[in-house]
Design goal:
This protein is of the alpha+beta class and 337 residues long. The chain has helices spanning 28-41, 92-101, 154-157, 195-203, 211-225, 246-255, 272-278, 308-326; strands spanning 2-6, 18-25, 45-48, 54-55, 60-67, 72-78, 81-87, 126-127, 130-131, 136-143, 149-153, 174-184, 233-237, 243-245, 262-264, 267-269, 285-286, 289-291, 298-301, 335-336. It folds into three domains: 2-67, Uridine Diphospho-n-acetylenolpyruvylglucosamine Reductase, domain 2 (2-Layer Sandwich); 72-204 and 216-220, Uridine Diphospho-n-acetylenolpyruvylglucosamine Reductase, domain 3 (2-Layer Sandwich), CATH 3.30.465.10; 233-336, UDP-N-acetylenolpyruvoylglucosamine reductase, C-terminal domain (Uridine Diphospho-n-acetylenolpyruvylglucosamine Reductase, domain 1, Alpha-Beta Complex). The chain has eight helices and 20 strands. A five-stranded antiparallel beta sheet has the order 6-7-12-10-11. Strands 1-2-5-3 form a four-stranded mixed beta sheet, covered by helices on one side. Bound molecules: uridine-diphosphate-2(N-acetylglucosaminyl) butyric acid. Uridine-diphosphate-2(N-acetylglucosaminyl) butyric acid binds next to strand 13 and helix 7.
């Protein structure tokens, strides 16, 4: 347990906010010990995984816990399927690579997503046509009320677009300790329908891609337009892509003939990156904070010196301009603290 601890290395924005207390735990018993300490002191809690989806706008007057539980196990279910379980502290991308090395399919489209396994269900991470709900079986959680272990299945997690039970009713009540996925050992379901993957595979000269090829294509696409948090602080997409009523979309089409949208029944999902770019934010920097030059949905700590408050204010300015120009209210995807 450490006091007045800088969380700068523990959030991918690289914001220098302090936690009143900080503890790193590697076992469930250690976790229970620090939780008992926090209960005695009635401290608020902050669980850190890879720190890839939080923005610390001020110092945290509580106990920040870095979950470092490690381990990956597998259980073959039948000829074609394996159940792979990873503990919360496993790095997501290393876990994906581990599975690909064993030729287990299902995670390849989710290559190179920053963060840890334990936080993947929180916002149902997704990219290039896959979300974790597609391969998720269950997760083991610790109930913070009674410190008992519980298992949540797919239905109980209530996954939605960048959303889950743990972000809604379950918020602050559980900590995820491990996640199990159902993966394929052969006859893999190769998903290349997401346009950019097809183009990338063509560029690579690959006609019948393996899961490893799909992963390579995804990595190439991500590297070509998303900033590496190790070099430039960021938390991936800062906002969700908004869904608007079809009637509103049709009205906008009258004014903006190149507006893009993906229809889902009576709603249309509009790419927030496009809306933000249209408002002139792409590549724009104000003091320490900017919108990424290749993908305006990503806000970056451009100088490495940005405070969380500066990043938050920058995001508010983006929300205002998009609302003014398009009448669409963007919702932040990143958790604000
Ligand atoms: N676009 C622009 N200008 C921009 C950015 C995007 O016009 O500055 C347009 C693109 O041309 C494209 C469309 O917007 O037609 C969608 O862009 P892209 O394919 O880059 O995907 P996205 O909707 O911006 C989402 C996820 C990403 C994920 C990609 C690929 C959200 C909030 N973001 O981004 O997830 O990697 O799709 O599947 O859904 C993340 O959540 O942190 C994240 C990076």
């Amino acid at each position: 347990m450490q006091e007045n601890f800088s969380l700068k290395p523990y959030n991918t924005f690289g914001v220098d906010a302090k936690a009143r207390y900080f503890a790193e735990v590697t076992t469930i018993d250690e976790l229970r010990d620090v939780l008992n300490f926090s209960k005695m002191q009635t401290l608020p809690l902050l669980f850190l995984g890879g720190g890839s989806n939080i923005l610390l706008t001020k110092d945290f007057e509580g106990l920040a816990i870095q979950l470092n539980l490690k381990g990956i196990s597998e259980e073959f279910l039948n000829e074609n399927e394996v159940l792979v379980t990873a503990k919360a502290g496993e790095n997501w991308h290393e876990f994906v690579m581990h599975c690909l090395n064993k030729n287990f399919g299902g995670l390849e489209n989710l290559s190179l997503i920053p963060g840890n396994v334990g936080t993947s269900p929180m916002q149902n991470i997704g990219a290039y046509g896959t979300e974790i709900k597609d391969i998720f079986v269950s997760c083991t959680v610790l109930n913070l009320e009674n410190l008992e272990l519980e298992i949540f299945n797919l239905e109980q997690c209530r996954f939605g677009y960048r959303d889950s039970f743990f972000k809604q009713e379950g918020k602050g009540k559980y900590v995820i300790l491990g996640v199990s996925f159902r993966l394929t050992t052969g006859n893999h379901n190769i998903k290349t329908e997401y346009g950019a993957i097809k183009t990338e595979l063509e560029n690579m000269g690959i006609e019948n891609p393996t899961i490893q090829d799909v992963s390579k294509a995804v990595i190439a696409i991500r590297k070509s337009k998303l900033p590496d948090p190790k070099e430039t602080g960021n938390a991936g997409s800062f906002f969700k892509n908004p869904s608007i009523p079809l009637s509103q979309f049709q009205e906008l089409q009258q004014k903006f003939d190149n507006i893009q949208g993906y229809r889902n029944e009576n709603l249309v999902k509009v790419p927030a990156g496009w809306l933000i770019e249209q408002c002139g934010w792409k590549g724009k920097q104000i003091v320490n904070v900017g919108s990424h030059k290749l993908q305006s949905l990503v806000i970056v700590n451009a100088t490495g010196e940005a405070s969380g408050k500066e990043i938050f204010d920058f995001s508010t300015a983006i929300i205002r301009s998009v609302e003014e120009k398009f009448g669409i209210l963007l919702e932040r995807e990143v958790n604000i603290l």
